[in-house]
Sequence to fold (542 residues):
Amino acid sequence: MTYVVIGASASGINGAKTLRELEPDAEIILISKDEYVYSRCILHHYISNKRNIDALNFSEKDYFKKYNIKWMKEIGVDKLKDTENEIELSDGSRVSYDKLLIASGASSFIPPVENLRSANNVVGLRNLEDAQKIKDAAKKVKNVVVLGAGLIGIDAITGLLGYGLNISVVEMNDRILAVQLDKYAANKYEDLFKKNGVNLKLGVRAEKLLVDEANNPKQLLLNTGERIPCEFVVVSAGVRSNTAFLQGSNVEFDKFGLIIDERGQTNIEDVYGAGDVTGRNPIWPTAVKEGIVAASNMVGKKLLMTDFFGSKNTMNFLGLATMSLGNVSVPDESYKEEIETKDGNYKKVIHKDGIIYGAIIQGDLSYAGILTQLIRRKINISAVKKSIFEVDYSDFFSIKENLEYTF
Amino acid sequence: MKRIKIDRSKCIGCLTCTTACIVSHDCVDNRSRITLSSKGKYAPIFCRHCDKPECVYTCMTGAMRKNPDTGIVEYDKNQCASCFMCIMACPYGVLKADSENNREIMKCDMCQYTESKSPQCVARCPMHAITLEEV
Fold:
């Protein structure tokens, strides 16, 4: 039996490891464009020189040897020929599989702003190569624009802070981190970034990137007519799943990405998928779980994906931590919000009829993980006679036979 | 693997386990705690070193790992990026960061790096409400 895994990030690495754990004798081949195994979520620590490439590795140091996985690195996949159980690689070679796990991830989306796609020195922050380019540029240029103030954009800024650059962030929303935070929580970070010299351009749109004769960026023109100086642009405007190589195959995908069922299987029997390539719930824990789920089903051990709660994140910028769960503002008047500001901490919980639908915890995050479960499982807290900010596991306490907790 | 068995009915909330945890790790913070339910019942909240550990699945640096030999979910503070996704992921709200620097996760290690090499909360509990059991 030959298993082929495409991709060396959260899904691919965890998927291949699971395959080995369940099938000690199978041949397992992992193919990746990446030269290294690294965590995309901490690339800003590489930019800031807090971590070297080794320290970005989220797998075991001897991973490929330990799990006896053949790694074909720095190779792309050009075509999937599902009727022949074969993939075509960027070096022209072909690899046959009995079962295939597609964990090819996603790529930065560069929006159709004039000149943005064609100019030099415009990058996303997705791959190690992007981080390397940003790092190199940071040593040479004076002015940087970060386009988009989502998590990736803010990551990029924190990575660049120590270089003494003039950093501007351009965002269409009225606040930074608009998906994860409300106005109050976002303001806390905005103040911190302003104190660190970052220029915040909020509620504005990029109209055109002005370039010089050599096609290098000079200024970013905004819809207000303002021109923001920049010799380098980091784009954080979302991602698109890497499904191009599926064109011409029978594997189904839509505008978001690869379509898989709760076992990780695509419409083709021997082809499975996991992680950001699906374009749904693109967060680390989902990618890991989908990799494990797909791998289990590939070897015939039934396992279903059950965690579809994807609107959850934590962040820790400039010494201030925040957890964001579910709805961060009331969807309509039938929902209630409770807010507590105490000791420099901000807590907000959205609820309705005893069910919690969302929360923001900023500052001290201690023990707040319970909220994730209460939201995910829609657990009714009406019987809890405590402040909604003090709910803990004591009111749900239950122990399984193997001594684990359960709800 | 071994887990700490919790007999809730025996717990008198004396916090000897909490103190033992602090002393064992020579740290100002505790890695387990006792809380009170709405009905006034004590609830010892201890890391379960889960078979399917959410904190491990969510860790994007590889700092949180389940040791396949011992079953212990181990935490490497040097590899940790203090993103706090594990705090969010723990279904039972066991985790927090250290109160001094807000950087290191206060994760139960079953005292395997201490001189005793076995959980001091268990060793010190006067009520035998927590015991070490093979599961």
